[in-house]
Amino acid sequence: MRAKFEEKSYEGYFNSELDRRSEIYFPLGQVQEGNFGFDATAFSRNRRMWRRLGFPFWFFPPFRGVELREIADEMEHYLGIEIDDVPSMKSNLLFQYKKPEYITMSTGSEWKYWNEPYYRYNIYQEQQNLLMHIHNTIGSKVFVVYASPAIHEVNELVRIHRNRQIIEYSNFKKASELNGHHRNTYINAGTFSIACSEKEKIENFDLISELNKLSETIRKTENDNNRIFIKDFSRSIVSLVNEDKHFAEPFKMLNETISKYEKFELLYSFLSMINFRQLTGIQWLIKV
């Protein structure tokens, strides 16, 4: 059976706990929708609409509106101040969250490996190919991980969230460890997994310890400049996705809608990564 909660609920709880327990920076647009302060924009001269909103007019609309260029200028300024206030950025993290199935019957394909109820999630080849392309190309600058909870009831999820134990109840596997497999299975968070189709035992790792090591093991950017760090990584991801046979075309179409912001380099970098997140489901975070 499928876990009885939304994947987004797990993501949100995981992110909030990770924020408290490790020096993580959540880039704009990655944690919640509406970081720009609005979900959609429109300009109307329709008198009936404005009357229903409580702003009747005869000749001119009650608000003159704001040029998108002005908004872009303001956002570029805001982003620059925000990332300058963040300590030196050291490495990028990409999380692929997985909502598992909870297998309780002996007819489950992998029951013979566990002989007790277990969790499993599918590894989609298109996503895995992209994750491996990123890992193989810029692996020294990014940590690529699958995260899946050893939880299947929503009341259990909420209880564990309230106890701040989401990370302890999550199973983590590096994308590189799951290459060549189509499923991963586990019985709880802190032990090994068995990946399939060719059975392979994969040991678990401590996420917080791994993240803390990143400060020492992954080299800093040459000039230690957060703005350049953000723009360089975004450009790398855009380039790699544009080479991917499955995601390239829809990604290019999404980025065409933000092409007018290209001259605003920071804003464009974040918008490109928002498109990356929406298309692939891959969460971008930064270790500082």
Please describe what this structure looks like.
- By secondary structure, the chain is an alpha+beta fold.
- It has one domain (7-30, 76-287).
- Helix content is 41%, strand content 16%.
- The protein has a five-stranded mixed β-sheet with strand order 1-10-2-5-6, sandwiched between helices. The chain has a five-stranded antiparallel β-sheet with strand order 3-4-7-8-9.
- Helix 5 crosses helix 8 (226-242), helix 8 (226-242) packs across helix 10 (265-280) and helix 9 packs across helix 10.
- The relative contact order is 0.19.
Summarize the amount of helix as a percent range.
40-55%
Q: What low-confidence regions span 5 or more consecutive residues with pLDDT below 50? A: 30-42
Question: Which band does the percent of strand residues land in?
Answer: 15-25%
User: Which structural class do you get from the secondary structure elements?
Assistant: alpha+beta
Question: Count of helices?
Answer: 10
Order of helices and strands: HEHHEEHEHEHEEEEHHHHE
What can be said about this structure in brief?
The protein is of the alpha+beta class. 41% of the residues lie in helices and 16% in strands. It has ten helices and ten strands.
Descriptors:
single chain, 288 residues, alpha+beta, five-stranded mixed β-sheet, five-stranded antiparallel β-sheet, 10 helices, 10 strands
Topology:
Layout: H1 7-21, E1 24-25, H2 47-52, H3 68-84, E2 91-97, E3 101-103, H4 111-114, E4 118-122, H5 125-138, E5 142-149, H6 154-162, E6 170-174, E7 183-186, E8 193-196, E9 200-202, H7 207-217, H8 226-242, H9 248-256, H10 265-280, E10 282-287
Parallel strand pairs: 2-5
Antiparallel strand pairs: 1-10, 2-10, 3-4, 4-7, 5-6, 7-8, 8-9
